Amino acid sequence: MRTADTYTFARTAMLASTAAVLSVIEGMLPELPVPGARLGLANLPVMTAVSTMSLGSGLCVALFKAFIALITRGPVAGAMSLSGSVLSTLVMWAVISFDRNKLGFVGIGVLGAVSHNMGQFAVSLFIIGAAVDFYLPYLIIMAVFTGAFIGFVNSIIVPVLFRANKKYLKNKGEQR
Question: What are the structural domains of the chain?
């Protein structure tokens, strides 16, 4: 395996494990005003992976996060996490690929959170039916706030990661 591949694999694994830990921590936090809504801390590593690495890395982190939800909270939580995480990862990747500067990380975070909730809402509709329709506006409102928060935090993290990556690559070149 080439050094770049090993580095990418290691960073993806670290972000995936961070997502798992944040998911557990988030489960211990008090509930938000909308029942079942969460801050989305575990989505931060997904957004970071898509922002700094690739769609493939972002999807690996999202899939691992969904797997952790499946084994710790059951099949419904696993399905909701999977649908929300994959959809939001694809949306964030599309926006970042198109032009990250137009919306910035806060805008990307909001779109990611709204799409995450839409994916989860689709699973809820499938499981429960139309009885959950009333809940959608509340989820979208919460997604705007939580997505803005996650995007803001990511706007702080990503520049630090880029500097660390440059430093790592510079040191790697000096060792040869």
Answer: 3-175 (1.10.1760.20)
